[in-house]
Amino acid sequence: MRLRMSGLVQSLLLRSFAVAVAACSVSFHNATAQFGGVFGNRGVGGVMIDSNGVLRNATAEDQTLNLEKLRGAMHGAQGDLAKATDLRLVSLKGIQQIALESQKQGKEIPEDVYCLGGLTRIDYVFVYPESQDIVIAGPAEPWVLGSNGSIVGKKSGNPVINIDDLATAFRYVNQARNGGISVSIDPTEQGYRQFNQALAGLTSQNINPAVASELARAFGPQQVSLSGIPADSNMARVILAADYRMKLYGMNLAKAPVAGLPSYLEMVKNRANASTALQSRFWMSCDYDAISHSKDRLAWKFSGQRIKTMTETEVFDNSGKRNNTGKADPVAKKWAESFTNKLGELAVKDPVFGELRNIMDLCLVAALIESQNLQSLAACDLSGLLGDSAKVQTVKLQTAKSLDPQISFVQSAQSMLVSASGGVMIESWYFASNIKENDTIAQARVMKPSLDSATSWYR
Which residues partner with 432 through β-bridges? Predict the structure, then answer.
């Protein structure tokens, strides 16, 4: 799967100041949640959608109201699910059956099924021909509400995987194979030209709030383009929010909630080479080791850090068109490596990054099942979840159309141009084809015999 966003942030170091242009709000069309009840319409990434359909940073009042609503609806983990475990098995056939039956009866998906038994990561995919089932497995724990409305593990604080994102990843697996899933947020060429004109017309080195507002107005709204993935899906919102948060931290528009992660602007503002024009884009992508499988292909294991931050230098011509160079600026590369190293901590402190990591796992599972023909191997019909004709519904949320920029600036010793754009790229089919045999993982499946999904969808 390839999800890509570009142009969310433009940053410029002007004379003695660093100026960052970032998204501050997103305009949305109204829609209603039809899946997961109140849990399907949670706030994501510390942002909220107001009554006018505009995405903005959530205020303390927003957070309180949202959490009160969620707490009133949440029951929490019950029975066996109230215990943390290193390896919980979740039957795909079982959750498909429950989801379809809930829809048929006009009921909401049960909370424990929505939270997939508290899974916080997917480490294994097991195939059970004897019970005609495919199972995903990984660490799990009882769930609670995070401070910004994310549903997280009570023990680790890592976000819990949800069935809505699973259903979206599975439904659009064929578009992923064709490389047609993309999310991009781009400045318009006209906006880029207007911004440069406004920048050239400045007569003072003092960029005060009034000047910053003028530059933002000249830059204009950035356009959101989505293809291959529903613009109104929770998955799209998570991807947008994760990229938005990354750019806020990189452009010094928000302080990272973990120690040892300065902003990109703080790292670049005093660099010695004042004549270099730097235009760096950053994006988050998958980072998995080769997938291990048993000789009989009934057990599959995921490993690796799963998510990383990449960077590349790009240039803009006078018309505002962007061209990639295939090279990375050393300072940008260092910041990308620092951000990658902190993503584990960020996944807890700012759970949208953990939710993005979960989405990557789900996309990889979907691609693996399709590319390795695991449905046939298991004699398991997942057509309710997997593929274009899938019947399991997903949440319907507001659709992002454009973003308004905001200006920030810091003192700098040099004069140079810096830009940052990018987003998220998930190439699940590439990683699903990177496999190797390792029969030692067969034991993990043997130790976990098949589930009877007619009586239990998890163990």
Answer: none
**Residue 345: which residues within 8 A CB-CB, separation 6 or more?**
258
Q: What is the largest CA-CA distance in the chain?
A: 76
Other Cβ atoms less than 10 A from the Cβ of 371: the count is 15
Average pLDDT, the chain: 80
Helix axes 330-349, 234-250, angle to 10 degrees: 130
Residue-wise pLDDT for 392-427, tens only, equals 999 888 777 777 666 666 555 554 445 556 668 888
pLDDT tens readout for residues 184-205: 666 777 887 887 788 778 776 6
* Closest C-alpha among 458, 374, 454, 373 to residue 138: 458
Report which residue type is found at 13: L
Confidence grade of residue 277 (pLDDT, cut at 50, 70, 90): very low
* Percent above pLDDT 70 for the chain: 73
Strand partners for 314: 324
Domain positions in the chain are 10-446
In this structure, of 90-104, 117-131, 211-225, 238-252, the range with the lowest mean pLDDT score is 211-225
Query: In this predicted structure, what is the pLDDT of residue 124?
Result: 97
Q: Hunting for tokens 């613009």 — which residue is that?
A: 231
pTM passes above 0.85: yes
- What 8-state DSSP symbol labels residue 383? T
Element housing 18 (H / E): strand 17-29
Token pair of 62, please? 């927003």
Determine contact, residues 422/282, Cβ cutoff 8 Å.
yes
CB 250 within 8 A of CB 333: no
- Top mean pLDDT of 66-75, 229-238, 374-383 is at 374-383
**∠ at Cα 163 (235, 105), nearest 5°?**
120
Retrieve residue 30's tokens: 């109204």
For 422-447, b where at least 16 C-beta lie within 10 A, e where not — what string?
Answer: bbbbbbbbebbeebeeeeebbebbee
- Which CA distances in Å does 342 have to 240, 292, 352, 458? 19, 26, 14, 32
What backbone phi and psi angles, to 5 degrees, belong to 226? -130, 140
Q: If you search the block for the tokens 């200006």, which residue do you land on?
A: 407
113's CB contacts (< 8 A; 6+ apart) are 95, 98, 99, 163, 457
CB contact set of 72 (below 8 Å; sequence gap of 6+): none
Q: Which amino acid is at 198?
A: A
CA distance 131 to 380: 9
Q: How far apart are the first and last CA of the chain?
A: 30
